[in-house]
Amino acid sequence: MVALASSTEKRLTVQLAEIASGTTAIRSLDWDRDRFDIEFGLQNGTTYNSFIIRGDKVALVDTSHAKFRDRYIACLQETIDPREIDYLIISHTEPDHSGLVREVLELAPQAVVVGTKVAIQFLEGFVHHPFESRIVKSGIRLDLGDGHDLEFVNAPNLHWPDTMLTYDWGTQVLFTCDVFGMHYCSDALWDEDLEAIAPDYRFYFECLMAPNARSVLMALKRMGGLGDIEAVANGHGPLLKHHAEELIECYRTWSQAKAKAEKMVAVFYVPNYGYSDRLSQALAYGIGKTGVEVEMVDLTGTDQQEIREVAERAAGIVLGMPPSSGREATEAATAIGTILASAREKQAIGLFEAYGGDDEPIDPLLTRFRNLGLKPSFPSIRITETPGEATYKLCEEAGTDLGQWLLREKTVKQMKSLDSDLDKAMGRLSGGLYIITAKKGELKSAMLASWVAQASAEPLGVSIAVAKDRAIEALMQVGDRFILNVLEAGNYQSLMKHFLKRFPPGADRFEGVETRQASNGAPILAGALAYLECEVVSRMECSDHWVIYSTVDTGRVSKAEALTAVHHRKVGNHY
Ligand code: FEO
Predict the structure, then answer these.
(1) Where, if anywhere, are coiled coils annotated (predicted)?
(2) Domain ranges in the chain?
(3) Which CATH architecture has domain 2-257?
(4) Ligand 1: distance of its center to the CA of 385 in Å?
């Protein structure tokens, strides 16, 4: 049964539904969530899912985002008397799920808060008045009675240090919060429409889970000790039932591929300090785009042996500046001492400010790393205002630069070893020369492309192969719009030269280039022979590229007689 309480004004609605015996979902539907965090790159809003499990005892699993305060609390009170809640299970403490913990505990002061040690510690600072709590870890069970026997599974770093999963042996529902989620908002309670949700599911994995691929594999291994999984009650998006097994296996396949990478970058950050977590996530996303593995490490909650092991194994180190005072400063200083003692010559290093109001200064630490022989692989990221889209994009691009720097020897080797007959034969495939230009929110980007072909006639459509480590790739998700600018034979050198340049992270690709705005918002290059306004329909993963199929809405040629510039190559395994 599904009931909707709606407010079309802000497009925030609440959906209530029975999902299993004695198990009710309260889903807060945020239809128009702005793109702010990097993982909200797609078009489809998000949901925050909370659950009530009724045995002889009653458990509430997670709450909602604070923006749903009135709607969520009203829905909760219509569904259950809060004084009947025995346990409030906290899967993880980020505010989109724990934003209403304080309010729920005011209504349900008798509830025992259940979570990992890290989660309980965080909530003690957040809730500001005493509450009863129970710290749990993998293998601990909590029998609610009447067929609801819960077992907890630690899943640290998916994607926060405090994450845990909860499995109900009675209904075989696995409550996972962020894990196996997606930012996809619709009335659909379940995952019937796999085609609709697949791009969001993948993009969300890339942003939140891929930087912790080894932790994902560890959590999947721990999940192996549970029974069958009838449904996944995740914290974002439609719940998984129809394709649960397949979508869980995707996590395994994708994580195994990440964990097989030859090189790894350790990203050290301080959760809950300034914007350290979000900025580190954007950096990790950028590194991951190059195929280099990332391991995210909490500077303040990880034991020194693990920090040493990760820092020694890493080909590169990225470090978010911790606070300069307080308990976290002391813990971070110890951790940084361990990293410095483990660091070695030729490792890449990159530092970023957290904008927490009390950051340790960057330069003295950078000097120490330099003196040890580490190579700064992007300019230190100094944050002077509240991070927005442009800052996160800068971090992503800095991460990509670092990943590409680590792979530079392999790339050069690959380019030099190209004289097989196959490479030469592939080189006889020619393409035109094009510049793709895109704008999304306040972000703009551009890329020289030649792997472009018409792909359909009705509707008109094109396919473009875009390397996974291109900055513009994030602006070419399903539903995004862009311009395909066609360069003119004999008149393309200056545009090609400009866009082939290596731009520093966050640089404006259009400085000094004459453009006008297309009806879809993207820049049209004044010097192009023709342009096509395109919208991304689907993306196919092809090893190191995405092949992006887009329909074409409109277009124009500036010179009727001119021809398209053609790109002839000698060999086929690089551009
Ligand atoms: Fe959905 Fe990590 O919060």
Answers:
(1) none
(2) 2-257, 263-411, 421-567
(3) 4-Layer Sandwich (3.60)
(4) 23
Distance 304 CA to ligand 1 centre (A): 27
Considering only CA atoms, which residue is closest to atom 1 of ligand 1? 178
Q: Return the closest-CA partner of residue 256 out of 217, 203, 219.
A: 217
Determine if ligand 1 sits within 6 Å of the CB of residue 356: no
Give the whole-angstrom CA distance, residue 366 versus residue 141: 47
CA distances for 466 relative to 475, 542, 547, angstroms: 11, 10, 6
CA 532–ligand 1 middle distance (angstroms): 38
The pLDDT assigned to 9 comes to 52
Nearest-CA residue for atom 3 of ligand 1 = 94
Task: Give me ligand 1 centre to Cα 466, in Å.
Answer: 29
CB half-sphere exposure, 418, CA atoms < 13 A: 19
Does the Cβ of 160 fall within 6 Å of ligand 1?
yes
Q: What is the pLDDT of residue 569?
A: 84
**Is 0.85 topped by the overall pTM?**
yes
Helix axes 389-406, 408-416, angle to 10 degrees: 60
pLDDT score of 2 = 43
Q: Is 235 in the pocket of ligand 1 (CB under 6 A)?
A: yes
Model pLDDT, residue 34: 63
- pLDDT confidence of residue 5: 46
Q: Are domains 263-411 and 421-567 of this chain identical in fold?
A: no
In 79-188, beta strands by DSSP E: 87-89, 112-115, 133-135, 141-145, 148-154, 164-168, 173-177
Q: What is the pLDDT of residue 417?
A: 66
Residue 565: C-alpha distances to residues 513, 529, 561, 572 (Å): 19, 9, 13, 18
Backbone angles phi, psi at 88, to 5 degrees: -110, 105
Peptide bond preceding 459 in cis form (omega within 30 of 0): yes
- 263-411 folds as Rossmann fold (3.40.50)
Distance CA 250, CA 14 (A): 29
> Does residue 99's CB lie within 6 angstroms of at least one atom of ligand 1?
no
In this structure, which topology does domain 421-567 adopt according to CATH? Pnp Oxidase; Chain A (2.30.110)
Please indicate whether residue 183, judged by its CB atom, sits closer than 6 Å to ligand 1.
Answer: no
Amino acid residing at 192: E
What are the 10-residue block averages of pLDDT along the chain, 575 residues in total?
A: 46 96 97 66 83 98 96 97 98 94 96 96 87 96 98 93 96 98 95 94 92 94 97 98 98 94 95 92 94 93 94 98 95 97 96 97 98 96 93 95 92 70 87 95 93 97 96 90 97 96 94 95 96 96 95 95 90 75
Which residue's alpha carbon is at the smallest distance from atom 2 of ligand 1?
A: 94
Residue 441 pLDDT: 84
